[in-house]
Amino acid sequence: MKVLVINAGSSSLKYKLIDMDNENVMAKGLCERIGLDQSRLKHTPGDKDTVIIEKDMPNHGVAIKLVLGALTDKNHGVISDMSEISAVGHRVVHGGEFFSSSVLITDEVKKAVTECNPLAPLHNPANLTGIAACEEAMPGVPNVGVFDTAFHQTMPPASFMYGIPYEYYEKYKIRKYGFHGTSHNYVAHRAAELCGKPIEELKIITCHLGNGSSIAAVKNGKVVDTSMGFTPLDGLVMGTRSGSIDPAIIPFLMNNEGLTIEEVDAILNKKSGVLGISGVSSDFRDLDAAAAEGNKRALLALKMFRHSVQGYIGRYASIMGGVDVVTFAGGVGENGPDVRADVLAGQEFMGIRIDAEKNNVKGVEAEISADNARVKVFVIPTDEELTIARDTKKIIENK
């Protein structure tokens, strides 16, 4: 079975074609600047060189057709025709309370995803556009929705409710949903495999650290808490997002700066985090370089980020009554040995100790805990596309 994985953004579309008989990636690529000038497709067939195709893509429908053309092209294609694609798996950011697992996409599912549009206005409409484009280009081929929020739906009400009048939950479903669920799901299960134990017997803290960052507490295979909330703005200090702040800051800024709610929202989502603190960049590599040159604000931004990660690790160990495994994924988590070392410094009281030599790795799967440490620590490069493909295969085989 060959599964095409689609991740549609507002002006982009990532894809992978995976042969599920051996889970090999046959091709992958990215459509950039959909609906904008100078749109192009970067297509990489297997282990061959990337092909750049510059062509106007006014919408996602055109982008999907261009992708399918690249996959079947005589020179850089990997399949003879589209009939070899058995199913399409779609990343959908927000499933609200409707979905606690991946589902076969039907008209009813699309209606539910549409109802969640106000909860993810930048993402869900693009996801729906990608689904519609695939349905048009490949009629009869089943589509599966895999939701970023689904893995977190096991959280108990004490974790996901906010301390605001209950009527707002009933009326608007204002609650913590959590995000990066596909990544947390993959990493938690992979950590259990590496430990040689059932996930149902482990207390795992998964750290997905990048420009957008979140942490999840996975106890006995179920998420009991996670750092992102009603939106991806909540939780850790991130690249451009503020993370958790005193809510009173919002009306204070509006009153004293004469800002609209839309302007404050833009500040908190796009101008805050380590970018706002450092004044340098939202890229942690730039911050490292600036801090090494003595930039105090860049150093402060890095310290704030690491402090926020430490706080959640301690909090979640307390909530779960201990921790057996800590994992690092995402661009910073996978490629930041200094970040990992700083975050876990002083955690020996919880049984967490890392080996400096083992920790000197980037972008590869590795155990970095000290030999005699009670808590296992792993670097696990996330593979959201493979998780989506696996869920898609399972649903198609069981429908």
TrEMBL record:
Any Gene Ontology CC annotation: cytoplasm
GO molecular function: acetate kinase activity; ATP binding; magnesium ion binding
InterPro entries: Ac/propionate_kinase, Aliphatic_acid_kin_short-chain, Aliphatic_acid_kinase_CS, ATPase_NBD
Compartment(s) of residence: Cytoplasm
Cofactor binding mode and count: Mg(2+). Can also accept Mn(2+).
Site (Transition state stabilizer): 180, 241
List of residues binding Mg(2+): 7, 384
Annotated Gene3D superfamilies: 3.30.420.40
Pfam family, one: Acetate_kinase
Predominant subcellular localization, coarse grouping: cytoplasm
Catalytic activity: acetate + ATP = acetyl phosphate + ADP
Matches recorded under PROSITE patterns: ACETATE_KINASE_1, ACETATE_KINASE_2
Keywords (A to Z) from UniProt: ATP-binding, Cytoplasm, Kinase, Magnesium, Metal-binding, Nucleotide-binding, Transferase
EC number: 2.7.2.1
UniProt binding sites for substrate: 91
Catalytic residues as annotated in Swiss-Prot or TrEMBL: 148 (proton donor/acceptor)
Enzyme class label: transferase
Needed cofactors: Mg(2+); Mn(2+)
Any one GO BP annotation for this protein: acetate metabolic process
Pathway: Metabolic intermediate biosynthesis; acetyl-CoA biosynthesis; acetyl-CoA from acetate: step 1/2
Domain of life: Bacteria
Residues annotated as binding ATP: 14, 208-212, 283-285, 331-335
Function: Catalyzes the formation of acetyl phosphate from acetate and ATP. Can also catalyze the reverse reaction.
Subunit (UniProt): Homodimer.
Family note: Belongs to the acetokinase family.
Name of the protein described by the UniProt record: Acetate kinase
Gene: ackA
